Amino acid sequence: MLGDVSEPAVQPNPDFSGPDALAAALESTGYLPDEGLATAAYLALVMHRPLFLEGEAGVGKTALAHALAEVTGRPIYRLQCYEGLEASQALYDWDFGRQLLHLRAAEAAHANQDTETLEASLYDRRFLLARPLLQALEDSPSVLLVDEVDRADDEFEAFLLEVLSDFTISIPELGTVRATTPPLVVLTSNRTREVHDALKRRCLYHWLQHPDFDREVAILRRRLPDVTEQLAREVARATAKLRTLDLLKPPGIAEAMDWATALHTLGARDLDPDVAARTLGAVLKYREDTDRVQALAAGALFGG
Amino acid sequence: MAEVSPAGVSGARDVVATVLGFARTLRHAGVTASPDRVEAMIEALGSLDVLDPTDVYWAGRLTLCGSPDDLERYDAAFAAYFAGEAPRPGRSRTTEPPRLSESAPLDAGSGEGDDDGAAPDLAARASADEVLRHRDVAGLTVAEREHLRRLFRLLVPATPMRPARRRRPSPRGVVHPARTVRRALRDGGEVTRLMHRRRQPRPRRVVLLVDVSGSMSPYADALLRFAHAAVRARPAATEVFTIGTRLTRVTREMRLRDPDKALAASGSAIPDWSGGTRLGEVLKAFLDRWGQRGTARGAVVVVCSDGWERGGTELLAEQMARLRRLAHAVVWVNPHKGRAGYEPLTGGMRAALPSIDHFVSGHSMAAFEELTGVIQRA
To answer: How far apart are CA B261 and CA B254, in angstroms?
Structure first.
């Protein structure tokens, strides 16, 4: 969510001596974790336990997984959860079209091949379409991001629990796939639904909060180098104030960055009430919230 | 052994003993620190510095807690157990308390003095001067209990359905490639019959908000029994909350099979039994904490209340409108509606009416049967 970082800025180093070393590595990729988050990520890495991240939308849950993939030099596989997500979309699927073609081709070539050989050739690895969970286990070591697990239905949760407890997937026709090194699993949830205790118990739990003022300024400066220091500070200050207003959707870091980008694009060097009011759509996503903020004295909120 | 400090820890055995003692303290504080979680904490400490209080703090918090509600209790228990050595849990905490938890424990007040305009600060909310009344199940006579039990056994709440995304095998619908190929293989690779699958309806979530304030006390027991019947019918698709001066989720308690046990369990979970009502505030707490995040989305929300509101009705009207936008249907059950010549005159009721899809009474068994019909068709 915090924008893609294309080129690895650091030499991938899978061994970290402690949370501080991991925090430093994450910082060099542009992700600035606080102490708790760094400890959580470090423990997830050394204990081979999934990391369960909860928090408001836009606090950088998904971005952490990407940053971790970068610092560990591992490939990242993302499974976006939604209602109705099935094993065939999360684990693997057989390529039926190619299987049928193969069958026809085999028939055309030598008609009296016995069924067993034919069937065995049909369930070959090359006809298997690996989906994120299987990919993450096959391409070990890797980072597996299970995004918004609260959106999947509870049947899927039970199934996920099974995969995450021993990091193996058994395919009846092929055998068992086991990860040589357990993947670093990051599960995120926006808490639209209470995730089952059994799943949480297997994970390290971390509640992610909005960053404090200094960290937010640092993140804005880091991610948006063109934005002036002055503007970054004022955006961070106004965003922090907006979060205290009991809005329907308090702005996250992602919104703060959108706002700073919008202001910068309009050529603003600082946050004056007029330009702030015009760009409010970048931070507030509900009409009620916009009305409320505009009703407050705009000067009091955004003034220098 | 409440005074063990991490600085005094010398060997692995002491670490284990300290952690076990801490887990016990934590359980007293209401955090379910199960043995496997405790084991995880010991393992986590193995990878961190046992002598560093900050590391101990995070090792415990990451492994022993499981929801934002646990965090505050964890901090308190940590401070108490490791006497004064609790590190500050990150600067952000002081500037921003967890939003989710903040809204739920509305201060219960005394039920009477709720009208003074001063906003209660957080410390006051957590203070113990609330007058909390637990419901006394033993107060029911045997005959009454038997009567209710018999009546509610007859009630079979049907659930509303909604179209689902997940496809299941079915005689009709779109072609199911996996099953078709498997079938074809049985016939020597010849597709003789297409197999199908289609979306099958799933139960729609039903959320019951039961008013347990003083003015509703004659009906609250029956309404909770109704809620129990609904939860038993569809345990995974029903949520029950009680509202009064605060919001309490009693879904877990309601899942107990025996209605009397379920009611007793929720009775002890509800701290504001027969207290005052602040519908608007509690509804806001529900929407902030649960509703907007998904519990109310697309659900049939049933509010069981007489609409007596101590706070302002503006907030209630606003929150009801918000609920209406999120929910599939809003049903309001008012036991007084069953009386002859009833007019929705209470301020709360009038404020809520514009946002209600179905307005029904809930004062008799017949009314409850009607209610199940309304919920099913909603």
So the answer is: 9
Q: Does A298 touch chain B (CB under 8 A)?
A: no
Do A269 and A252 fall within a single domain?
yes
For residues A208 and A60, is the Cβ–Cβ distance under 8 A? yes
| 3 state SS of A93 | strand
Same domain (yes/no): A165, A66: yes
**Is residue A217 left, alpha or beta, with left meaning phi > 0 and alpha meaning psi from -120 to 50?**
alpha
Cβ distance A192 to B166 less than 8 Å, yes or no, reads no
d(CA B307, CA B279): 8
A291 in contact with B, Cβ within 8 Å: no
Whether residue A43 lies within 8 A of chain B, CB to CB, comes out as yes
Q: Does one domain contain both A110 and A163?
A: no
Q: Measured between CB atoms, which of B36, B55, B177 is closest to A96?
A: B177
Beta bridge partners, B199, equal: B167
The mean per-residue pLDDT over the stretch A11-39 comes to 84
* B151 and B261 both lie in a single domain: yes
Give the CA distances from residue A111 to residues B182, B188, B189, B252, in Å, rounded to whole numbers and listed in that order.
20, 11, 12, 62
Which tokens sit at A90? 């999360």
Q: Which residues of B touch A194 (CB under 8 A)?
A: 67
Residue B86 forms contact with A (CB below 8 Å): no
Q: Which chain B residue has the Cα nearest residue A113?
A: B188
Min distance A207 CA to chain B CA atoms (Å): 7
B131 in a domain, yes or no?
no
**pLDDT tier at B103 (50, 70, 90 boundaries)?**
very low
Candidates B95, B167, B293; nearest CB to A192:
B293
- Print the domain residue range for B29: 6-96
Closest-CA residue of chain A to B71? A207
Task: Clarify whether residues A173 and A272 are in a common domain.
Answer: no
Q: Given an 8 Å threshold on Cβ–Cβ distance, is B178 in contact with A56?
A: no
Report yes or no on A1 lying in a domain.
no
Q: Does B164 touch chain A (CB under 8 A)?
A: yes
Residue of B nearest to A51 (CA): B62
Are residues A249 and A103 part of one domain?
Answer: no
Half-sphere exposure of B156 (CA within 13 A, CB side): 0
Tens-digit pLDDT profile for residues A132-177: 999 999 998 999 999 999 888 777 888 888 888 889 988 888 889 9
Residue in B54, B62, B191 closest to A43 by CB: B62
Which residue is it, tokens 């690779």? Answer: B189
A55 & A163 share domain:
yes
Pair B85, B229 in one domain:
no
Same domain membership, residue B283 and residue B370: yes
Structure tokens of A118?
């034919």
CA distance B211 to chain A (A): 23
pLDDT bucket at A64, cuts 50 / 70 / 90: very high
Q: Are residues A49 and A99 in the same domain?
A: no
For A92, the token pair is 């693997």
Give the Cα separation of A134 and B114 in Å (integer): 57
How far apart, in whole angstroms, are the C-alpha atoms of residue B262 and residue B252?
Answer: 9
A-contacting residues in B 33-52 (Cβ below 8 Å): 34, 36-37, 40, 43-44, 47-49
pTM of the model: 0.70
- Total domain count, chain B: 3
Of A115-124, A137-146, B72-81, B283-292, which range is least confident? A115-124
* Domain residue limits at A255: 213-302
pLDDT exceeds 80 at position B114: no
Question: What ipTM, to 2 d.p.?
Answer: 0.79
Is B127 inside a domain boundary? no
Q: Is B165 helix (H, G, I), strand (E, B) or coil?
A: coil
Assess whether pLDDT exceeds 50 at residue B119.
no
Count of domains forming chain A: 3
Q: Per the structure block, which two tokens stand in for A99? A: 């299987």
